[in-house]
Prior knowledge:
Layout: H1 7-21
Amino acid sequence: MAFKIDDELINMIGDFANLNRSPEFKVKTNENPQKAAKAPINRQYSLNLAVGVSKNKVY
């Protein structure tokens, strides 16, 4: 299963790692960035289950 990680999250993780290495590190990311409104993603999910019946009991 693949996960898409947002660029902002990757930048925050990088800033955190650099902050732990050097206490005088200045954070590159803005705390309240002005983001462009993203269009909502319309997703449709489905789940298919197949259940079989067997004459032999299996435990």
